[in-house]
């Protein structure tokens, strides 16, 4: 049964304390590296050539100022003054000492952040459009759906040991800026006959065998989102290969077995699972929509903008590249680099 409660700070702190004890046992030799490996991966910790790496989750790329400050502090105190933003809208710290990582997790927990499911064969960070909630061409804001999927998938007991990692992306605009066809599951928000739903893609992915996904459902009503996604992943969990990690992704499962076979098994699984949700997911979606309510936009002066563009070629060039249309008249989304 899907629980509508989000990951709470107390739980994140509990996970950090649990990992602290595991690190102590690794350092005193009670745990071998082979025994420690699945435990650290569950907490986003990789062992690279020269150091450990911590990957911090930033769900669907949305972050608050206080969280940014903590990330900056972590980069300053435990890394080399910077972090690495990833394609899945997370951030990685590449030079922490293992003994320091529990302290990093404690500081993240203070602002509601963690590294759960940023590694391992599980459902990874759900990504969406960088302009989500603001894009002028948006069917509807995809972030409440991304939060629904994040809340549902975090520590989902059935999907902690999938054949391979699993990635989901949601696109809310007429233009697909989330690249849904390159994901294990891609979701495009669409409207049909006045109803909001999804075009569902499956079996995409990059890596050593890049494949474009295929449409498994051309229209999925929004109220059926979670049971259908759960049915896809359950089907993959049972039929995906575990004998070769390079052939374990769902894209290989779909390619080898055929989309029609995979679709039929998914639909059968969906029919069994949909009754178990009993509306809890729709109640959660309503709560998440409220959290993403638009702010009270003020009437902003726009006089002089075009004059400045014409008078300053450098400014005009920057706005041509970095300013995107906003759904609210008089506003725009601007892309600003973090680099000097």
> Main beta sheet: strand number and arrangement?
5 strands, mixed
Quaternary state, please?
single chain
Query: How far apart are the termini?
Result: 48 Å
Structural class designation: alpha+beta
User: CATH superfamily of the largest domain, please?
Assistant: Sulfite Reductase Hemoprotein, domain 1
CATH fold-level assignment of the largest domain? Sulfite Reductase Hemoprotein, domain 1
Describe this protein's structure:
The protein has helices spanning 9-27, 33-41, 65-78, 101-109, 143-153, 225-239, 250-257, 259-273, 280-291, 305-311, 313-322; strands at 45-47, 52-56, 84-85, 91-93, 127-128, 168-171, 185-192, 195-202, 214-221, 323-325, 332-334. The chain is α+β, with helices and mostly antiparallel strands and 340 residues long. The protein has 2 domains: 9-109, Sulfite Reductase Hemoprotein, domain 2; 127-291, Sulfite Reductase Hemoprotein, domain 1. The strands form 3 sheets. The protein has a 5-stranded mixed sheet with strand order 5-6-7-8-9. Strands 1-2-4-3 form a 4-stranded antiparallel sheet. Strands 10-11 form a two-stranded antiparallel sheet.
List keywords for this structure.
2 domains, five-stranded mixed β-sheet, 11 strands, 340 residues, Sulfite Reductase Hemoprotein, domain 2, four-stranded antiparallel β-sheet, Sulfite Reductase Hemoprotein, domain 1, alpha+beta
Question: How are the SSEs placed, and which strands pair?
Answer:
Blueprint: H1 9-27, H2 33-41, E1 45-47, E2 52-56, H3 65-78, E3 84-85, E4 91-93, H4 101-109, E5 127-128, H5 143-153, E6 168-171, E7 185-192, E8 195-202, E9 214-221, H6 225-239, H7 250-257, H8 259-273, H9 280-291, H10 305-311, H11 313-322, E10 323-325, E11 332-334
Parallel strand pairs: 5-6, 6-7
Antiparallel strand pairs: 1-2, 2-4, 3-4, 7-8, 8-9, 10-11
Helix pairs in contact: 1-2, 1-4, 5-9, 6-8, 7-8, 10-11
